Amino acid sequence: MAFTLLHLTSLEQPSSMEVGLSSLSTPHVILNQDELKKIAGYKAVEFVTSGMIVGLGTGSTAKHAVDRIGELMRQGRLKNIVGIPTSKKTLEQAVSLGIPVSDLDSYSVVDLAIDGADEVDPYMNLVKGRGGCLLREKMMECACKKFIVVVDESKLVTHLGRSGLAMPVEVVPFCWKFTAKRLQDLFEDCVAKLRTVVCYCQDGNKMEQPFVTDNGNYIIDLYFKKDIGDLNVANNTILKLAGVVDHGIFLDMATTVIVAGKLGVTIKNK
Predict the structure, then answer these.
(1) SS3 state at 218
(2) Which residues contact 202 (CB under 8 A, 6 or more apart)?
């Protein structure tokens, strides 16, 4: 795995960030998390060239990359781009920016995909899907020649699942409680919870309803109190359960990870 260190200078000129390790210094300004995400997203777009079929990810970091692609197309610096969105939300964003869109039925091979991640381990394995788009994201990233992950440094973990945050599993609504119980029983000290959203009734009262994915499915979030163990075993064991559509463990898919931190940008390549 190769490592390249870049220096944070400005959001407006991400291509000017590159400097050698010896010249790395403290940035002149303190950047917040969204600014770091923007730098990572903009840096990823430097890998995009005219004529590409580009997978457009979903989430707060990927949004910046999609914005940047739209901007470069308006400037004429990128041409003949076709975007393959991973969610309805990203589809709406791309259309609003004038990015031509299509799908995997029309383009089964994608030149490059840019997307965020919820967790990244030292081996570039990922947890994705806390935004609810894990199935379409995984389908996209299995079809792309190059998958660039863009994150801020808060997403780095020593082992997937160790953050204590949700590891999502997309399940069919039919007998979801049964599926959730089976998922919970797969792991020691694991809690499985149905993801819900708050809705408002006509009388103004609040009520919770299941979160529904773009594919009409539910999300069961797994919370691990202990190490998830062997990731390949966990990956295969979860997928074997009837009722499970897919899960948020992405193994050996990322080819490049761009991490924006307060001291600089790190690019990791396989």
Answers:
(1) strand
(2) none
| pTM listed for this prediction | 0.86
Residue type, 15: S
pLDDT, tens digit (0-9, with 9 covering 90-100), for 103-159: 999 999 999 999 999 999 999 999 999 999 999 999 999 999 999 999 999 999 999
User: Which amino acid type is present at position 264?
Assistant: G
> Is 137 designated active site?
yes
Question: By the 8 A CB rule, do 161 and 169 touch?
Answer: no
Q: Which of 126, 133, 164, 129 is nearest to 148 (CA)?
A: 126
* Residue 77 buriedness (CB in 10 A; 0-12 / 13-18 / 19+): exposed
181-191: b (≥16 Cβ within 10 Å) or e: ebbbebbeebe
Euclidean distance between CA atoms 145 and 53, whole angstroms: 10
DSSP at 13:
-
b/e map 112-140, b = 16+ CB within 10 Å: bbbbbbbbbbeebbbbbbbbbbbbbbbeb
Among 137, 170, 188, 208, the one annotated catalytic: 137
Q: Cα–Cα distance between 132 and 212 in angstroms, integer?
A: 8
Please answer whether residues 13 and 43 qualify as being in contact, where contact means their C-beta atoms are separated by less than 8 angstroms: no
Q: Which residues of 217-248 are buried (b: 16+ CB within 10 A; e: fewer)?
A: bbbbbbbbeeebeebeebbeebeeeebbbbbb
Of the candidates 238, 235, 41, 225, the one whose C-alpha atom is nearest the C-alpha of residue 125 is 235
Pairing between β-strand 206-210 and β-strand 82-85 as defined by DSSP bridges: unpaired
Which tokens sit at 177? 């409680």
Cα gap 161→228, rounded to integer Å:
6
Query: In terms of Cα–Cα distance, which of 112, 116, 120, 141 is closest to 59?
Result: 116
